Amino acid sequence: MDKRSLLARIVKSYPAVQSLISGEQDTQEKGLVVSWGSLSRRRDEYDQVVRKKIPANSKEIAIARSYGDLRENHEYKAAKEMQKLLMTRKAELESELAMARGTDFSDVSTNAVSIGTAVNVTDQSQNIDEDFIILGAWDSDPDKGYISYLSPLAQELLNHKPGEEIVLEQHGGKKYRINRIENIPAELSESLAGGHEDIPEEVPVQAESEAPNDAAEQPASSDSQEAPATEETA
Fold it and tell me: pLDDT band at 212, cuts 50/70/90?
């Protein structure tokens, strides 16, 4: 038995050691740091999926079933494929929302690069200054220089201090010097806090993880209707 097979057998028997073997941190315990604005948008998407898209899809399936002959029923197959996509997305959103921890990025220390800081660096190979703003998991906007703290670049910048020089192993060995670290602009902080007042401290997630039952979607056939009573003969 080779090393890979042995590790696979260990993980199968003891799932808890997966993070120790791979070196990954337990995201479930740490949670996801997100801005209040992005949390509000993600919650809105979840509500759209659960309250509108899934019910509409169930109606489409029921209508398609009424056409009969499911083997050649392309409308039914398409609706069922969409059902799979919707239920998958719903499960993803439930998992993400359960881990999400909203923040407004206030009172962030600028002693070292951390979530909620603006960082100025020098690319020493080209002698060019670059600016990055390290934000939450769902706040990435590369065109504006906003990067998620989970991105490879942010992970290599985190915890470094002004004056330090680092080699970005995941970016071809590029060398950066940390010049300065500041709090993010006030106007950006305000825009990222959008929807904070409307979000409870713990975002409730509806327990609707199972796909709709096909039996419930199928309209009753004429064969299943109750036959009219016949008058008894004397």
Answer: low
What is d(CA 121, CA 159) in angstroms, rounded to the nearest whole number? 14
Token pair for 122: 């020098």
Asked if 61 and 53 count as a contact pair (C-beta separation under 8 A), the reply is: no
Indicate whether 199 belongs to any domain.
no
Which of 102, 132, 163 represents a domain boundary (last residue)?
A: 102
Q: Quick one: DSSP state of residue 170?
A: G
pLDDT in tens, 3-61: 556 555 554 554 444 444 444 444 444 689 999 999 999 999 999 999 999 999 999 99
- Does pLDDT of 166 surpass 50? yes
* End-to-end Cα separation, the chain, in angstroms: 83
Q: What is the C-alpha to C-alpha distance for residues 109 and 162, in angstroms, rounded to an integer?
A: 13
Q: Do 38 and 22 fall within a single domain?
A: no
The two most distant CA atoms of the chain are separated, in Å, by 108
State the residue range of the domain holding 81. 32-102
What secondary structure, in 3-state letters, does 151-167 show? Answer: CHHHHHHCCCCCCCEEE
**194, two tokens:** 């959008």
Return the sign of the alpha-carbon dihedral for residues 154, 146, 134, 123.
Answer: positive
Both 38 and 96 in one domain: the answer is: yes
